[in-house]
Design a protein that fits this description.
- The complex is a heterodimer of chains A (264) and B (92).
- Chain A has helices at residues 21-30, 96-113, 142-148, 211-219, 229-245, 260-263; strands at 3-9, 12-18, 45-50, 63-67, 70-75, 78-83, 88-93, 117-127, 130-135, 154-156, 159-164, 170-173, 189-200, 205-208, 248-253.
- Chain A is of the alpha+beta class and 264 residues long.
- Chain A has two domains: 3-113, no CATH class; 117-263, Phosphoenolpyruvate Carboxykinase, domain 3 (Alpha-Beta Complex), CATH 3.90.228.20.
- Chain A has a seven-stranded mixed sheet with strand order 1-2-3-7-6-5-4, covered by helices on one side.
- The radius of gyration of chain A is 18 Å and the shape is globular.
- The termini of chain A are far apart.
- The relative contact order of chain B is 0.25.
- Chain B has 92 residues and is of the alpha+beta class.
- Chain B has one domain.
- In chain B, helix 2 (54-65) packs across helix 3.
- Chain B has helices spanning 39-47, 54-65, 69-85, and strands spanning 9-11, 15-20, 23-28, 34-37, 89-91.
- Chain B has three helices and five strands.
- The radius of gyration of chain B is 13 Å and the shape is globular.
- In chain B, a hairpin with a 2-residue loop joins strand 2 (15-20) and strand 3 (23-28).
- The chains are: A alpha+beta (264), B alpha+beta (92).
- At the A-B interface, helix 4 and helix 5 of A face strand 2 and strand 3 of B.
């Protein structure tokens, strides 16, 4: 391997062994919130990354195979081979999109396996030292909300990194898995205040929803590819823990920043 | 479908439950279906392993809630049929 990159995401350390300059540049640029690890202990996750795999993403599914003690995730543009505890992995990618997706896949699985947290398809913005999450289906306005929230700190615009603390509280950490707003957040983390499910509308209002409905809405926003029933059960339990901890709302919003008036 | 009052009922495997705000969500990991039931439905679901027939369930609900036995029996029968239709329980 040509390059080594020691990094930190949330509370976990990740060591990359990287085959090519292109991939090294992608990792150091895209995941610039990573910092050089200062401890000498073994990393939580060790990843080898290889280039020249497959073809461009073709909207096809991720196929998952179980081979003895490892899982293999295959998509047209990447292959991810991981140990069953997700701490040792090899990733073969076609391009930068494939690299990001494969890493989201691996890291999300690692978080759920350890009941440490979740990666959620959403944006997250800090207002008065508290993090507000904005989730919704594709096109609902997650990244628009982040864009309209300037100059507030943006912890995520695509994949929110949610971690459970030992005291049961929830912290949102600066996400390296971004789509457009690539600038790293000036804050490393912020406590979660609440979850909004976005609905585009002519008026601006916020409606509290029951926790059962929040759980149903949250389940399909998790970056999770079903491959093992125990892991699926863990994912459901973590979602339940999240909606029990903070309030959830439907946020009806127009494409302007008036929605902050009904939040804070 | 009519369930005989004394047929033994079993919870389907791989059903996760979540009780939130007095509502119960029954999540079938095999089919990804989610069934929402009220507090009484959740109570019946929770005692089903100990009282695995319609008759036993109805007697328990009758003694806990004091509702007329005939009414309880009809309601429990309808609820159990719904759970079977939703793939959440099976006959032993």
């Amino acid at each position: 391997m040509t390059y080594i990159l020691q990094t930190q995401v949330g509370r976990s350390s990740i060591d990359f062994h990287i085959q090519t300059t292109f991939l090294y540049d992608e990792l150091t640029a895209r995941f610039r919130s990573f910092k050089a690890s200062e401890n000498l202990e073994a990393p939580d996750i060790q990843v080898e990354v290889y280039d020249f795999y497959g073809k461009p993403f073709d909207d096809g599914p991720v196929e998952i195979q179980e081979n003895g003690d490892e899982y293999v995730y295959i998509r047209a543009d990447y292959k991810l081979e991981t140990s069953s505890d997700y701490s040792q992995a090899k990733i073969y990618v076609h391009d930068d999109l494939a690299l990001k997706h494969a890493l989201i896949n691996l890291y999300s699985s690692w978080l759920i396996h350890r009941c440490a947290g979740l990666l959620i398809h959403s944006s997250c913005v800090v207002e008065n030292d508290r993090a507000w999450m904005f989730a919704g289906p594709s096109g609902a306005g997650k990244s628009t909300v982040a864009d309209l929230s300037d100059p507030r700190p943006i912890l995520s615009d695509e994949a929110t990194l949610l971690l459970f603390e030992q005291d049961g509280s929830i912290t949102i950490h600066d996400s390296p898995f971004r789509s457009e707003m690539e600038e790293a957040c000036e804050l490393p983390s912020s406590p979660l205040a609440g979850i909004h499910f976005l609905i585009q509308s002519q008026d601006v209002r916020r409606v509290g929803i029951r926790k059962g409905d929040a759980l149903i809405s949250l389940l399909d926003k998790i970056f999770y590819w079903e491959h093992n029933k125990l892991e699926t059960a863990k994912m459901i339990a973590l979602c339940k823990q999240a909606v029990e901890s903070v309030p959830a709302y439907e946020l009806y919003f127009q494409k302007n920043d008036a929605f902050w008036g009904v939040i804070s | 479908m009519t369930i005989l009052a004394d047929q033994t009922l079993l919870k389907q495997k791989n059903i996760e439950t979540a009780e939130l705000d007095g509502e119960w969500l029954l999540l079938n990991i095999n089919t990804h279906a989610i069934t929402k039931v009220n507090e009484l439905g959740g109570y019946i679901w929770s005692i089903l392993p100990e009282y695995p027939t319609v008759t036993e369930l109805a007697e328990k609900v009758h003694s806990e809630y004091g509702v007329e036995m005939e009414v309880v029996l009809n309601d429990v029968q309808a609820f159990v049929e719904m759970l079977i239709e939703a793939g959440l329980i099976i006959h032993a």
